[in-house]
Fold:
Amino acid sequence: MTLHLEGDGFLVIEETESTQRLAEKLLTECQNPPGAVFAHHQTQGKGRHGRAWLSSRGDSLTMSLIFSENPDTPQPWLIGMAVACAAAGLFHCQVRWPNDLVFRERKLGGVLTELLPNAQGRQVPVVGIGINLNQKGFPEDLAPIATSLRLAHPGSALGDDAEWEPLKVARRLAERVSEFPMPTSWADLRPIWGLFDATQGKEFKLGDGRTARAIGIGPNGELLAEADGEPTLVHAADALFGPGSR
Ligand code: BTN
Structure:
C-alpha cells in the first residue's frame, strides 16, 4: 500500500483535536501531503458512528494514514480492513469486522476510514488508528470490554521501562502498512483477514434496532449476518456492535 512516509512524509505533532481533522486540512492545503500524521495527544478524538475516541498522552497511539495515491477508490473500506490486518499481525491480536482490533474479546484498538477531499476535489482514503498501549486499567464502564498492549502482552514492549513508545510503535505500524499489498477486492484480502478474524458468531445491533449474529463476510467485504432467521448483508456504516464495542 503506497504511503508517502520518507522525510517530511511522517508528520509528528505534539497535540491536536484529531489527526483525522488535521489530515483533512493538510489534504486541501498541501500539494504533497504526508503519508502519516501522528499526534502525541488528541483532545477530541473521533471514533466510528460519531462517537468520541478517548486517549491519554503517552499511553495511546493516535495516527492517521493518508492514501493520496488511491483517490476515488471504489471500495475504501477494504483499505481500512487491510490496515487492521497489518496491525493485527504486528500486535498479535485479532480483527473484528469491520476493523476493530481485539484481544481475547476485548477491544485493543480501532480503525476509522474516511474519504476526504484533496486540493483537486478528489476523495482520498484516510485511515485513523487508535491503539491502547500502556493503560494499566480502564474506567468502570470500559473495563470489561477494553484492553491495552501492556495488559495483553506484558513484558514485550517496544520501548524502555516496559513501556510501548507511541511514536516508535506508530512508525513501525506505518512501515508495516506500506509493505502490505493493496487489496483491490475482498477476494484479495479474504485469505489474510481469515488468519486474524474474530467476527463469526458475534452479536451486534443493526441500524433499525434488530439484533443480528455474524455468519461471515460477504462478497465485497460486507458483514454477512442472520437477523430474525434471515441472512442479510450489512455495510460497515450500518452496524453497531453490542458487547465489546466502545
Ligand atoms: C473506532 O471507533 O473504533 C475507531 C477509532 C479510531 C480512532 C483514531 S485515533 C487516530 C484517528 N484520529 C481520530 O480522531 N480518530 C482516529
Q: What stands out?
A: The two ends are 28 Å apart (CA to CA).
